[in-house]
Amino acid sequence: MKLFGYWRSSAAYRVRIALALKGIAYQAVPVSLPAHEQASPGYTALNPQALVPLLIDDAGNRISQSLAIIEYLDETHPAVSLLPADPAGRARVRAFALAIACDTHPLNNLRVLEYLQGPLAVGDEARLAWIRHWLAQGLSALEATLAGMPQPQAFAFGATPSLAECCLIPQLYNARRFGADLAPYPRLRAIEEAALALPAFDAARPERQTDAPPDVRTTP
Amino acid sequence: MKLFGYWRSSAAYRVRIALALKGIAYQAVPVSLPAHEQASPGYTALNPQALVPLLIDDAGNRISQSLAIIEYLDETHPAVSLLPADPAGRARVRAFALAIACDTHPLNNLRVLEYLQGPLAVGDEARLAWIRHWLAQGLSALEATLAGMPQPQAFAFGATPSLAECCLIPQLYNARRFGADLAPYPRLRAIEEAALALPAFDAARPERQTDAPPDVRTTP
Fold first, then answer.
1. Fold (CATH) for B2-80+203-208
2. What ipTM, to 2 d.p.?
3. Within the 17-46 window of chain A, which residues sit less than 8 Å (CB to CB) from chain B?
4. Do residues B139 and B186 touch, judged by C-beta distance below 8 A?
5. Which of A87, B37, B108, B178 lies 20 to 30 angstroms, CA to CA, from A177?
6. Keywords on this record (chains A, B) (predicted)?
7. Is B169:B195 a contact under the CB 8 Å cutoff?
8. Residue/partner pairs of A123-128 with CB below 8 Å, 24 or more apart
């Protein structure tokens, strides 16, 4: 199994967590986003969307979109499940993940920030305000969603991590990277702390990846 | 079953299509986005994300996020299925839907356009260029994805509509609204024509909804 990704891509990070939680061995294929390797003809022939991640499994199936990949892994490697068994529970976990994947992350990814800086000529300060605005919108809704739930457990929706943490932990990494104030989100930070204490989440960290620059790279 | 939505919301439109395809009766509860009713305390108590759609089913389950709602409906009302049976097929349909829901639609929804116009003081022309840029990025990737598939059938992934069309038809409605050039996407337009010929897609159209303004509202 091959995973095309980039060490700091939030969407690739989600899939790395899922693979690690399920104990699936894979070959990491780095695609440098700052060098725009994702827009090369070789890569767009594999993924016309010109985005990472992309999974190619041993049967040759090419699957794009982090959430589609994780659902696929959950259906084909069900021993460690990332979704609850009941439809309403599954819906709640998916809605939490989609609130990140649809309404928070896409507004702050590299191609959007490049468009703000380029065609719209938005200055650095206004660009940082944009980033933090959408982070605050997204994270405060997630915190409020969890605050409305009874009896907090270690993770967002139970005693074990789910698709929710596959999305939340990379989003919080991203928020820290842009200097967002995380003080208003104690529940999210508690979940992050519990997750990062697990070897699977640790192995998936950006700074553990082989394509991380030497000055940030760490080994366990 | 109640669906909180807005006639012109692309995300609510997706769920209306799924409900109509499955023949599920529901009560439409209009939430006016231009009047910011989605940010009222009454509504955010139901959905902290302050977005439509929101489904409340007869058991009282509150489910947000259009794709989570459609997956929930697919699991609880499986007679008309919106996903293929095999995991790789399901992954391809989900990836197509997510390419719209994560990477195309969120960049052009109302709250983003308001932020461009307000804090960033982006003029009308540059704002329209932004909208059309992300539409072209998204739609051309979808067209390329389908062009790479053998033997086109009536719909994106087979002889019957799926989650792919639940997302594609509203996205094309949105593209027309902003005057995007759809000439480069013949396959997408053929799918749209096939879909809109079906009563379920017709019933879900924005202009068929009770909260559409009288001057655009039409009846079948």
1. Glutaredoxin (3.40.30)
2. 0.97
3. 44
4. no
5. B108
6. Isomerase
7. yes
8. A126/B119, A126/B120, A128/A178, A128/A179
